[in-house]
Amino acid sequence: MTKYLKKCKNCGKYSLKNAQSKCPYCGGSQINAIPPKFSLIDKYQKYRIEYFKKEFDEKFNKI
Ligand SMILES: [Zn+2]
Questions:
Q1: What is the pTM of this model?
Q2: Which domain holds residue 53?
Q3: Do 40 and 26 share a domain, yes or no?
Q4: 7 alpha carbon to ligand 1 midpoint, in Å?
């Protein structure tokens, strides 16, 4: 849902993505409200990778 949320570059108001990518308030261009690098999916993926890496290290360093 958040990927449809856009922020106006001009007035800073939040609005839903529309076909013209234009702000409904002032007509300015819309930008992504939330940059992809801050997405929750990436955040949890990072923790998951760290968890598996730790588990992997523990398993193979014991041998
Ligand atoms: Zn605007």
A1: 0.49
A2: 35-63
A3: no
A4: 8
